[in-house]
Automatic annotation (TrEMBL):
BP terms from Gene Ontology: fatty acid beta-oxidation, unsaturated, even number, reductase/isomerase pathway
Protein name stated in the entry: 2,4-dienoyl-CoA reductase
Domain NADH:flavin oxidoreductase/NADH oxidase N-terminal: 14-336
EC id: 1.3.1.34
Positions of the FAD/NAD(P)-binding domain: 384-656
Any GO MF annotation of the entry: FMN binding
Organism: Brumicola pallidula DSM 14239 = ACAM 615
Length: 679
């Protein structure tokens, strides 16, 4: 029966069951661990239960929770989730019961943060401070290490009593076990330091003793760091040694970990090619017989199927794609991949929120982690609603409102939907915006939104068509430059560049170093799209696919940029400080790699044939440039508002038309969804 089903399946490898001996997973998808911020919220366990249950209902085979500490020293932050008592275990029952009710399986991740702990009680293999946290850790004594092993085992036992189907032991991403394994952070001279065997001892003993405690019929996933991507990281032979020892110690599955949090190599953002690291899992398949899980930037069923069909792994881990669409697997099973709300790997509402200790969600799916609060009920009395503007806010509102049963007409003056997304999708590394627009085009069809392209509306037109309620999602207009010479032929707006593709010279000054300024700069200096050429992308970031060096790092292969770009800002703060917490450094490094000169504390004096006259550090300077591109902010576009109100219509304003703030799609889509749920 199984063979018949998978043979006829649109994704036969992805949807094939996986027999683990004592239990069977219904397909090859694992929802990877994500800390959601609900773990610490009041009533958070009920919200977590709803979140995980929806993903189980959507068909994912095995869920892994966010990291739960085995003791207080292992906290990610004060009062973060931990599992150290039967009282803690009892609280988790609502989660496991909800997942099992939907036919799913769920493992709890045991994560000891080690020196990444954002608190003064942090411990590690040695007293070496992390570059990304303010607290220097205390080196665990030999006795302390043995006690920590017992805490892992106890934590797994409590997880079992809480109804979890297994645990994932986090040995990757630079957390405690990883810190013990690498010479970078382990300078010990006892039985847990020095030789490879000693550095591997903590990981092996945790798995071995956990298996002895929980018995044979309990899933143990070990998250193995296969690429550290840091100086002083592990060598390939060392990783193979640990993998074989973990298999012997009793693990059920090995999951792939890529990069430490402090690594200066991007691993999951939009600019990373899809399935960029599955080759390392494939390499490990030749070394162990356990089923292997691969991960990172797998966000469509087509990519997942390809990875499995090529034999790179036995399962695929996708975390953020299940934030974006809880029905990812169910839609794949129905051969409806064109209806999947694809993760665009922006990190803005998930990882950025986690590192800011806020509740996680998803830019393209604001319902994620708000399943019990943001609810779209069918309407008893449908309204006829006009939506003006088919940018992110207008698209989100129109499709959510139409799905509830309203008669929604979406007006757009351009010949395509997308608004500012149509500019963003052209920036190298932001091609995933094409997926969002593909999704909305399909949602318009499925929900019955009446789309009117090439239509410029006014109050008379809407009144004649009988609209009494209008949602203005008209977006923004670029803020103009107000210095002498701002009308000079050298001056351009970012719309001239990204929308109209006007010629840009070899020397360019970009005024404004917010997200748009960075995007325009990237657009101007990137010679080719590295996200579609994996080998060149790996070489650009200095990743050695042959893995002959510690951490697989080599010298970056950089190329001369086609233009000299100056990126300028008035503020004296660090250029790019306002970018995303987990991705801003990548944008800065990318521009540095392309020799972009970033300047802060700049006063703009005038523009003339000589170029851009500025004052920096109290000294006048002339930038001899061919063009000056203005990315100095936006203003709301609300010209329609007054005439609509005078015509007696009820007007709602959302997105950039409400607050023009660096083209904030995350806020725009959430605001649109909340209005659609209420209207």
């Amino acid at each position: 029966m199984t063979n018949i089903m998978t043979t006829n399946s649109p994704y036969p490898h992805l949807l094939e069951p996986l027999d683990l001996g004592f239990t069977t997973l219904k397909n090859r998808t694992l929802m990877g661990s994500m800390h959601l911020g609900l773990e610490e919220e009041k009533g958070g366990f009920n919200k977590l239960a709803a979140f995980y249950a929806e993903r189980a209902r959507g068909g994912v085979a095995l869920i892994v929770t966010g990291g739960i500490a085995p003791n207080i020293a292992g906290w990610v932050a004060p009062f973060a989730g931990r599992m150290t008592s039967s009282r803690h275990a009892k609280k988790h029952r609502v989660i496991t019961d909800a997942v099992h009710k939907e036919g799913g399986k769920i493992c709890m991740q045991i994560l000891h943060s080690g020196r990444y702990g954002y608190h003064p009680l942090a411990v590690s293999a040695s007293g070496i401070k992390s570059p990304i946290t303010p607290f220097k850790p205390r080196a665990l004594s030999t006795r302390g290490v043995r006690s920590t092993i017992k805490d892992y085992v106890s934590c797994a036992n409590y997880a079992k009593s809480a109804g979890y189907d297994g645990v994932e032991i986090m040995g990757s991403e630079g957390y405690l076990i990883n810190q013990f394994f690498c010479e970078r952070t382990n300078h010990r001279d006892d039985e847990f330091g020095g030789s490879l065997e000693n550095r591997a001892r903590l990981a092996i003993e945790v798995v071995k003793q956990t298996r002895e405690e929980v018995g044979a019929e309990f899933i143990i996933i070990y998250r193995l760091s296969m690429l550290d991507l840091v100086e002083g990281g592990a060598l390939w032979d060392e990783i193979v040694y640990l993998a074989k020892a973990i298999e012997k110690a009793g693990a059920t599955l090995i999951n792939t970990g890529i990069g430490w949090h402090e690594a200066r190599v991007p691993t999951i953002t939009t600019s990373v090619p899809r399935a960029a690291f599955t080759w390392i899992t494939q390499r490990m398949k030749a070394e162990v017989s356990l089923p292997l899980i691969t991960t990172n930037r797998i966000n469509t069923p087509e990519i997942a199927e390809s990875v499995l069909a090529q034999g790179h792994a036995d399962m695929v881990s996708m975390a953020r794609p299940f934030l974006a669409d809880p029905d990812f697997v169910a839609k794949a099973m129905r051969n409806e991949s064109d209806q999947i709300n694809t993760c665009i790997a922006c990190n803005q509402a998930c990882l950025d929120h986690a590192f800011e200790q806020k509740r996680a969600s998803c830019l393209v799916n604001p319902q994620a982690c708000y399943e019990t609060e943001l609810i779209f009920k069918s309407v008893a009395a449908p309204k006829k609603i006009a939506v003006v503007g088919a940018g992110p806010a207008g698209l989100a509102f129109a499709t959510y409102a139409a799905a509830r049963g309203h008669d929604v007409h979406l007006f757009e003056q351009a010949n395509e939907i997308g608004g500012q997304f149509n500019y963003a999708k052209q920036v190298p590394g932001k091609e995933e915006f094409y997926e969002t627009l593909r999704y909305y085009n399909k949602r318009i069809q499925v929900t019955g939104v009446k789309l009117h392209l090439n239509t410029r509306v006014d109050a008379n037109l809407l009144a004649q068509q009988g609209f009494k309620e209008v949602v203005m999602a008209t977006g923004i207009k670029p803020r103009l430059l107000t210095i002498p010479g701002s009308d000079h032929p050298k001056v351009m707006s970012y719309i001239d560049v990204l929308r109209d593709h006007k010629y840009v010279g070899a020397k360019v000054a970009v005024i404004g170093a917010g997200g748009i300024g960075f995007d325009v700069s990237e657009y101007l200096v990137e010679q080719e799209n590295l996200t579609t050429n994996l080998d060149k992308w790996l070489a650009h970031w200095g990743i050695d696919k042959a893995f002959k060096t510690p951490g697989a790092l080599v010298e970056k292969q950089l190329h001369e940029p086609p233009r000299q770009v100056y990126l300028l800002q008035r503020k004296s703060t660090k250029v790019g400080k306002g970018l995303g917490k987990t991705s801003g450094w990548i944008h800065r490094h990318s521009l540095i790699n392309h020799k972009v000169q970033m300047m802060n504390g700049v006063s703009y004096e005038k523009i003339d044939d000589q170029g851009l006259h500025i004052i920096i550090n109290d000294k006048p300077r002339v930038l001899d440039v061919d063009h000056i591109i203005v990315c100095a902010g936006q203003e709301p576009l609300r010209e329609l508002q007054l005439s609509l109100q005078e015509a007696g219509m009820q007007v709602h304003i959302i997105g950039g038309a409400d607050v023009a703030s660096e083209l904030d799609a995350k806020r725009a889509i959430r605001q649109a969804a909340e209005l659609a749920a209420e209207i």
